Amino acid sequence: MTQTVTTDDGVRLWASRQGQGQGRPLVLCHGGPGLWDHLEDVAELLSDRAAVVRWDQRGCGRSERCAGPWTTERFVADLDAVRRHFGLERMALLGHSWGAQLALSYALARPERVDALVYVSGTGIDPVSDWHGPFKENFLARLGEVPERLARWRELPDGDRERAVLQWSIEFEDREGASEHAGRMADPWFGINTECNKALNDETRRAWGTPELYAACEALDLPVLIVDGAEDIRPRSAVDSLERALPRGRRVVLREAGHLPWVEDPTGFREAVTGVL
């Protein structure tokens, strides 16, 4: 069931709700920034356990194109508009990649609205400079396993669909199925909001890794499940900072999975997350 959520500044967001499970309601936050919801498979895995809400973030995917603002504070407010629209007094939050950062930011800002947080394939709370160099090396090495693929990726402009599929194909440990998995992420294709992507990534570089952020995470009195794919090309050591800070954190590492662990280990992913629900 798809619906339109209207934010407090009048922007219309695409949203969908499915499932009637008896667990606490679950809201999903997709990655990016600048992309659209790609968590339908996650919703299918969990909708027998909980009502699951998905949404496209501001200016992205099926949501209304707008001029921003592209800030975490604004996106946290949008997520709260989604919560209110569906009548959720409290909810579990699951965020993937950039969406894990957004879900964590929401939990820090509005902990009274969150029952539990599932932090999937994030990059922790240390400065971006601590992990981005090794990630870039891993990225080029993985893409360069097929030299023609790397050369083609370099030829194409930012925001191009073919370029995105090439880039996403290295996010899976399953080399044989990687192109098919990446193609599914791009079908349908809504176009990448590159302005949103740049602005929010720039904000993260400025704001992440501060003493205030560490202190806020140390004070977060919520159950938090961290889920990693061991073969993610982002150094998993980056997430150690968050794991150390959380007073009620638990971590599950899925050994044969990459950046989208529910694709390559759906059973392990479901078992981990249903414990929270």
Automatic annotation (TrEMBL):
SUPFAM superfamilies: alpha/beta-Hydrolases. Keywords: Hydrolase. Gene3D superfamilies: alpha/beta hydrolase. The keyword Hydrolase applies. This is AB hydrolase-1 domain-containing protein. InterPro entries: AB_hydrolase_1, AB_hydrolase_fold, AB_hydrolase_sf, Peptidase_S33. Belongs to the peptidase S33 family. Pfam families: Abhydrolase_1 (PF00561). It comes from Streptomyces plumbiresistens. Residues 25-265 form the AB hydrolase-1 domain.
